[in-house]
Structures are given as structure tokens and as C-alpha cells.
Amino acid sequence: MKPNLFVKVAGVTLTNPVIAASGCYGFGDDYTDLYPPNVLGGVSCKGTTLEPRDGNPTPRIAETHGGILNSVGLQNYGVDKFAADFVPKLKAQGCVVIANIAGSTLEDYAEAVSRLDGTDVDLIELNISCPNVKQGGAAFGVTAEGAALVTKAVRAVTKKPIMVKLTPNVTDIVSIAKAVEAEGADALSLINTLLGMRIDINTRRPVLKNNVGGLSGAAVFPVALRMVWQVANAVDIDVVGLGGISSASDAIEMMLAGAKAVQVGTAIISDPFAPLKIIGGISEYMRVNKIKNLTEIIGKVKPW
Ligand code: SIN
Prior knowledge:
Blueprint: E1 7-9, E2 12-14, E3 18-20, E4 42-44, E5 61-64, E6 67-70, H1 79-92, E7 97-101, H2 106-114, E8 123-127, H3 138-141, H4 144-155, E9 162-165, H5 173-182, E10 187-190, E11 194-196, E12 213-216, H6 221-232, E13 238-241, H7 248-256, E14 261-264, H8 266-270, H9 274-288
Parallel strand pairs: 3-4, 3-14, 4-7, 7-8, 8-9, 9-10, 10-13, 13-14
Antiparallel strand pairs: 1-2, 5-6, 6-12, 11-12
The chain binds succinic acid.
Succinic acid binds at residues 23, 47, 70, 72-74, 127, 129-130, 132, 192-193, 214.
């Protein structure tokens, strides 16, 4: 019998648990020649703000061992173009659309989210974890108080499900997860990138013009897995795991740790087919182990 890969995140049904992570898949346009975007469980679109942004000066991407550093700075078209052009296009292709929304102030977040209320966006991913902007972003996400304030402001203006994307650049991610759960978040996604740096030894300049940037890719996977496990054990809302997932076995580890679904980001940059290989690998693992439903895996790690 074919394994059942369906999962529900924040009340939204996904045909499989593999979502393209924000910032690594754009709006799917670059990949449609390779495969239709609706074969993915969902698409988390590039971080979008109330007004368009040019992002940070270049260079803003650097390779590292097992990952990349980015300091993109939320380059995006603004929420109105996102709502008018990209959402209908993705919905017409049968995708579950996740809007990743960032802002500099509480008002920015609330206004951007409220402009999506009349659209077919399935889920709002509240980005309070971008490390590359001077105002807002991770400034809200690094304290339980700040994270709670944004969640409350956005909860007040939308009935759409809200998934809050957490930063790992904190001492106690569990207290932040609990604070946003208490303000009405329906789900959590974690982790965003880890703050990092590279220096060119010849010029003695940081490789990134922003000096520092966010580290993603296989190198961060064990950190992400640990945080997902800690958070999933502390909250009742759904958890989506991301951070360096590059194989089906990574995705299964994330689900064993408590993630209902996973996001694949940096792996897509080196292999656009990575999400498809991961979906196939999960299905094969279920077939071999006679697992009919993903609920038999989710949160089923047996800690020592
Ligand atoms: C960026 O655009 O700087 C990355 C987005 C993020 O880390 O949330």
C-alpha cells in the first residue's frame, strides 16, 4: 500500500511534509521547467515587507564549509505586488502558499498581514528572525516580550493561521516559543539562520559587505534538530523544522524530534531536485518500515 504523506500544519492540509523554505525557492518561477511547484507540500515565499526593499549592498552571499552565509537584507517586491501577482500565480498551480512576512515596526507587520487577508494565502509565516536588517526582524525575535508583541499585533488583524519563524540566535528559544504560543500563534517554524562571519585574509575585509550574515545549510542541521526537539516538547502548537535539511534521513530525524513538516532551503540551491528526492526518500522509508501514516514518526524519538 502507498504510504500516506498527508500532514496538517496549523489546520492547513499538505499533501506531503516537504515545504520549500523562504528565500531559497523565490516564488517558484525559476523551477517550473523542472517540476510543477504543487508536488511540494507547500511553498514559503521570499520574505516580504510592506514596502519594496532593495536589500543590502553586495557581496551578500558567501560559501562556507557545509553551507552559505547570506546578508540579503530582505530584498523583495513589497506586499501589494506579492498579493496581486505571485499569490494568484502559485494558487493557480495548486500550491499551498505560505507568505513570509517581515517588518521594521509592529505597525508594518500588522499592515502587511492585513493586506493579505482578502487573498488566497494559506498561511502567514511571521518572520521575526531575519538577522540582516537594522530595524525589526530579529530585533523582535530575540526576546520573549518582542516576539509576543508582534504575534499579538498580527493576531489582531487576521484570521489566517499564523506560523512564527524563530531565530536560533538566543539563549532560550523555548521561552520565546511559549510566549508566541500564548499570544495565539498556530504554529512555529525553526530555525532561521545562525549569525556568522568570514574574513578575506588578503584584503582583511569581511567577505560580506554587511560584515556579518546568516549561516544556513548542512552545517547547522544538528543545532536546528536540537532546538526543534526542545521546542516541540514544550508547546502544544505545530512545529515545522528547518535548518540544513538535505536528505530524507535529515527530514525523518526532524519529524522524530517533533516536527510535523519540514522546510528545505539551502539544499535547493545546490540541487533543485532536493525536495523531490526528500519526498521520495520519506515515502520509501515508510514503505520499508511499514509505516502507514506520518503520525507514527512525528515526535517519536526515544530519548535516553
Ligand atoms: C535576508 O533576506 O536577509 C534573509 C531572510 C531571513 O533570514 O529571514
